[in-house]
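Q: Fold this one first, please.
A: Sequence and structure below.
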Amino acid sequence: MELYCENLYNRTNEKLLDISMTAEGKIDLCRKSFTAVQESLYKLKEYVNEHGFKDKSSEIIFFKSVQPKFLGELIYFAEVFRIESSCPLKPPKQKKGCYRKEMEKISAFYERHQELYWYHFSGKTDLDDKLFLRNGEIDFSFPDIYFLDADPEFSCAGSYRVGQFIAFKKVLEYLQISLDTLEGKKSNKTGPVWTGPKVWLIELIYALKAAGVFNKGKVDIKDIANITGPMFQKDLGEYYRAFQEIRLRKKNRTVFLDHLKTALTEYMDAADGM
């Protein structure tokens, strides 16, 4: 299951990248991206319904770390679509007010759910069987759910909320960039932008750590991540958690490194005229 979910997520990111390069404006981008992620969620749902989970541990991992990534993307595009559709023709001053109001709403959301937020992102596990198992003891209402049905075999209390945490963080970044643009502030970011899956970059930084190529091996993974993320304009987020997912891969735990080797070999062969 881990490999299927990872491959599906990577294929989804590739679709989103293609859409971002061809979409005609923000509304079109959000609409097409939402549809692409929704299709991937349906595929994920079909896979889960067909194969199930081998034990409670694998079910918890799925609803705590896997499904929320897809939900986060889905909710993000739905929220940006809603925001941009609500004030498409407003003058800059009113648009800035609209963006600030949305940021206040998100801040209020985090305040309401701060205990769950800190539970999840601090790495605690003592409530996992209540939050990340189907029919768990803790239940939330989902009046704003974005996919077509809340199938009890494909949903649980914590997964959707974690998806919101992931999504709203991205929405805040989007709103801040939009505000800066309206106020004439220029980004000081330069250089290449990482457009591959985030998990690939995380796999790379852990490989560099393991190889001991920085400071004769005397450097923490946090130091490498803090430099690498901004360098390639990529928020690495919970890279510790992502590394645990990489370790759990069944067939191949070095997908990106193997891809790099193949790509470089083919590049050199092409340069040699082979």
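Q: Good. Now the second chain.
A: Here it is, same layout.
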Amino acid sequence: MTSGGGTFSAEEVAYLKTLPAVADATARRITYTEAFKAYCVERYGEGVSPVSLFREAGLDPSLIGYKRIECAIARWRKAMGVPTVRKPRSARTAPGTTPFSPGKAPLAGEPVLTGEQGDIRDLLIYQQVRRIDELERQVLDLSSRLEQLDKSEVHPGA
């Protein structure tokens, strides 16, 4: 947020309003479409990082803010009645199925953290989101460097 203090500049608001994921934007608030909220909650449950989801939608974390992204996902999941804890990768089901689909045994004992435990979990998730974003940036940078090296080997002197 270039304006500082948690506000968006007029240019940033204009940009945000052009995005399909954004229903409305003001200097202090972004309202997301219901479709984007549902998409994020579903994909987050599949293990996709919140930062990646927002970035894919044109909502760069450096503009939106990491805390805003973290709070939005948590708020949407709570509003949609999604448990606080994601399923471990091995326990997740294929798209379009549920743990109770024919031929599948139900998953037992998935914990739902609340109160102090939930606050600790939220803090850990926040820290992981930031680390994942940092690693994603490094991967993009290294991929770009590797691509440049490959091009220089194919076309020496380029």
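Q: Anything worth noting on the second one?
A: Confidence is low (pLDDT under 50) at residues 88-118.
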